[in-house]
Amino acid sequence: MIDFGGSISRAPKGVSGLMLIQIKGKNLEVTDALRNYVNKKLRKLEKYFHSIKEATVTMSVSRGMHVVEVQLEGDGILLRGEERRGTDMYGSIDQVVEKLETQVKKFKGKLYGKTTEEGPKEKESIKDQVLAEAFGPETEREEMPTIVRTKRFTMKPMTPEEAAQQMELLNHNFFVFLNSQTDDVNVVYKRQDGNYGLIEPA
């Protein structure tokens, strides 16, 4: 795999919102045209936030597919999106931004009890909370599963309701958080009936 590293773009002077955009390429050289296109598209999301702390964009080509992954942190919530298309990278960029816009429009009001026009209530940022990995091919029965990856993340105090909304934003089936009401580590998860469950320490 060839990693072409990353570039950093800052918002133009006088523009609030996206203060920092990191763009990386894997098996792909990020051209100025692609970089400018990413900056233009991501700024569509500024209107939904008071402040977007940073956005990380990774573009790659895998098995003929043009893959774009975006992680965006703003107003104390973390959004992730991925799109892969066989046509071109610009189409993947369009689709992943559209996905993120749909997510934030759907859940922003629920998280803070306000409309986007009223502005969200700022909370502390949640970082590096990758809690769900895609399962690979099934292993042979005689093989024992092993821990192949470790994730570290900072847990921010929140209510179970806020944790459930954050889980939905991340598109995960469960979410580990620090319960602001009890100061205990809890897990909220999605049940098969579509409701949520809460796991508390005994």
**Fourth CATH level, the homologous superfamily of the largest domain:** Ribosome hibernation promotion factor-like
Tally of helical segments: 3
Query: What is the C-level CATH assignment of the largest domain?
Result: Alpha Beta
Number of strands: 9
Mean pLDDT: 75
Based on the structure given, which CATH architecture of the largest domain is correct?
Answer: 2-Layer Sandwich
Total domain units = 2
Distance between the termini: 46 Å
What is the approximate shape? globular
- Find the CATH topology of the largest domain: Double Stranded RNA Binding Domain
Percent in helix:
10-25%
Largest sheet: 5 strands, mixed
| Backbone structural class | alpha+beta
Write out key terms for the chains shown:
SHC Adaptor Protein, 3 helices, globular, four-stranded mixed beta sheet, alpha+beta, five-stranded mixed beta sheet, 202 residues, 9 strands, single chain, Double Stranded RNA Binding Domain
Polypeptide structure, described:
By secondary structure, the chain is an alpha+beta fold. It contains three helices and nine strands; from the N terminus they run E-E-H-E-E-E-H-E-H-E-E-E. The strands form two sheets. The protein has a five-stranded mixed β-sheet. Strand 3 and strand 4 form a beta hairpin. It starts with a strand and ends with a strand. About 20% of the residues have low confidence.
Structure summary:
By secondary structure, the protein is an alpha+beta fold.
